[in-house]
Amino acid sequence: MADLTRDVVVIGAGAAGLTAATEVKKAGLSVAVLEARDRVGGRLWTDTIEGAMLEIGGQWVSPDQDALKETIAELGLETYSRYREGDSVYVGPDGTLHRFTGEMFPVAPETEKTIAEITERLDAMVAEIDPDAPWAHPRAAEWDEVSWDAWLRAQTDDDEAVRNLAFATGSAMLTKPTHAFSLLQSLLMAASAGSYSNLVDADFILDKRVVGGLQQVPLLLAERLGDDVFLGQPVRTIEWSDAGATVISDGMTVHARHVVLALAPVLYNRISFVPALPRLQHQMHQHISMGFVIKVHAVYDRPFWREQGLSGTAFSPYELCHEAYDNTNHGDERGTLVGFVSDRNADDLFRLSAEERKERILESLAHYYGPEAKNPAVYYESDWGSEEWTRGAYAASFDLGGLHRYGADLRTPVGPISFACSDMAGAGYQHVDGAIRMGRFAAAGILDRARG
Ligand code: FDA
């Protein structure tokens, strides 16, 4: 059992933890990063499956994500744009396929007008929200007590408008049923991307990818940290006092003045804290849960949809795969589609056999792209729900009423323990950008206290 003493111990080698470690080390403090898995990156994982490079976790970078963009540039990585030439497709309530361009779905004029009006209303509300303090808005309590679905349904009785407005923060982002989270949580999700309109703009939110895969960000950060990163070290116990902590993993004990807990908050309760965390943390952490989405990868010998003048961008609140995109790798002759199946649909699919699941998903992709979609050369489902050290996707959010009740306390350190994760970010919330911001934030707090 190795026994180390460092200034800072970071638990979790995702983007947040590796950023925090990099920052404190840059400032001259000694650091050890303990990671449960046998790889770094957490929810960033670029892997090769049957010869195809797939982004099993996070991949897209949007123009407002300055912290991620700075890190990408600093690490010397290159980006490229998502393929978006040609028409997008939308499947309506009667199953009819419509081609369209631009942001507005091809719906009836009345529905289009309703969507535009409510989007304008939402943009105005989002503009009043500070993503770092949504609970500070004068109407925070009121907006946190009504579900996203109930609020939308109170604005209009046009079901197609509601479904299309709901899914931007529902199936597509928080990946929970829209009755399960609040209007305030939805406004935070939009505010974290600048506006509700940004969030529904696929060309904005899914703008660029990194050549060679986004996992290179944590891989290169870890490479620079070198021997300070320890893999296969699930932390089981943190003994702490105001003077510091002893962190015990399966193979190591690290004594440190400061701890950064850089994992999804839903996993904190897997660690024994001695003494126990305060009452507030015990309560608060029970009101946060992971969303759930299956990311489906289908690789074909060529991007056949482009021959039909299709961009690959596809949406439908009525389809099993509520959204899908051309996800062809940079310089790849083969064509890759990526589709997403969210929340209750994902639950239902996992009750089926692997063959039935694949058939149902490919059937849904065929509704968008035609029968050729049913025969990929490589097929893979990213299932983060079964990953012991993540337990869902993309990230965690508060239940109804939890955000204004507890949000302000989520990042507040407890004794020597600071918290960092994309799931508690303001700007970049639930994204790699937010993870980096939270890594920087935890490191800055530690450096302030160390200079103290
Ligand atoms: P993360 O979960 O990555 O890291 C935590 C680390 O802690 C993990 O490595 C874990 O193993 C470790 N750990 C947990 N418990 C431990 C213990 N007890 N001891 C030691 N280690 C422990 N974002 C984006 O910007 N663009 C995108 O396109 C997408 N798309 C996307 C798709 C899918 C399928 C997923 C799952 C996620 C995304 N995301 C995304 C979200 C993005 O990937 C995510 O927000 C960040 O990578 C989270 O980084 P963190 O470092 O905060 O947590």
Keyword list:
single chain, 452 residues, alpha/beta, FAD/NAD(P)-binding domain, Polyamine Oxidase, Chain A, domain 2, Guanine Nucleotide Dissociation Inhibitor, domain 1, binds dihydroflavine-adenine dinucleotide, oxidoreductase activity, Flavin_amine_oxidase, Putrescine oxidase, oxidoreductase, Amino_oxidase
Please name the fourth-level CATH homologous superfamily of the largest domain.
FAD/NAD(P)-binding domain
Proportion of β residues? 15-25%
Tell me the total number of β-strands: 21
Shape-level CATH architecture of the largest domain: 3-Layer(bba) Sandwich
CATH class of the largest domain: Alpha Beta
Helix content: 25-40%
If you compute it from the alpha carbons, what radius of gyration comes out, rounded to the nearest whole angstrom?
22 Å
DSSP summary: helix tally: 16
Count of individual domains: 3
- Summed over residues and divided by their number, the pLDDT gives a mean of 97
Structural class: alpha/beta
Shape descriptor: globular
- Uncertain runs are none
* Biggest beta sheet attributes: 8 strands, mixed
Per the CATH scheme, the topology name of the largest domain is: FAD/NAD(P)-binding domain
Measure the end-to-end span. Answer: 33 Å
> What ligands does this structure carry?
dihydroflavine-adenine dinucleotide
Keywords: Oxidoreductase
Pfam families: Amino_oxidase
Organism: Microbacterium telephonicum
Cofactor: FAD
